[in-house]
Amino acid sequence: MHAVGIVAAAGSGLRLGADVPKALVGLGGRPLVCWAVDALHVGGVDEVVVAVPAPQRAAFTDVLPAGVHVVVGGDTRTASVRAALAAAREHADGTDRTAVLVHDAARPLTPPAVVARVLEALAAGADAVVPVLPVVDTTVVVDDDGRVTADVPRAPLRRVQTPQGFDRATLVAAYGRVSGTAAAYTDDASVVRAAGVAVHTVAGDERAAKITVAHDLALAELQLSGEIS
Ligand code: C5P
Questions:
Q1: Ligand 1 pocket, residues with Cβ under 6 angstroms
Q2: HSE of 179, CA atoms in CB hemisphere, 13 A
Q3: I need a surface site. Which of 36, 59, 201, 218 has the fewest CB within 10 A?
């Protein structure tokens, strides 16, 4: 099975408050996007396509390793993945199928073991697989005034991480069904599930946490320096 990694790195990172796109923000002296690309390679992905914001295309090309394919992303994550998927071609070496793993640049410290688990599930025959973690907090629904209107039983709930793995043809067909930039989809498994495909799960990892606000970046720095595990 040939595996292509797609890294969605075209977000602005407004919530992080940085003056560069989030994927170019440094962690341990290296841009987040470089960590995400490394995790995919070490975990077993053969080639990587990165979707970047148009104005910073050259800046991304400068920091990414040679051989990584850089494409311009879109206004939503869905549009960015769609652009990268167009560049992630079917592998023509006679192997049975091509896997595509879609990963957030914003999850720099994802252990390669998570990537390997996703690849294993695809090799075992799954068409779609996501890494997940349990929900530990009490979870509720609130109304527009912030009042709690319902409790949600948390036992069946999961938090979904990346990389999310797909049979390439399945992912291409599912993206073919969603229109335009489709801002309603926050990940790729929901695009595939909307097309009626079963999505399987493997164990995620707290270290694959998404960096959204400055506190997340501070935690990642501590994780990197070994002060927290
Ligand atoms: O905004 P959020 O943190 O959910 O974004 C998740 C990932 O999707 C980030 O790595 C971000 O760079 C990427 N993204 C993208 N194109 C967009 C918006 C977000 O590639 N238009």
A1: 8-11, 22-23, 51, 73-77, 80, 104-106, 210, 212
A2: 0
A3: 218
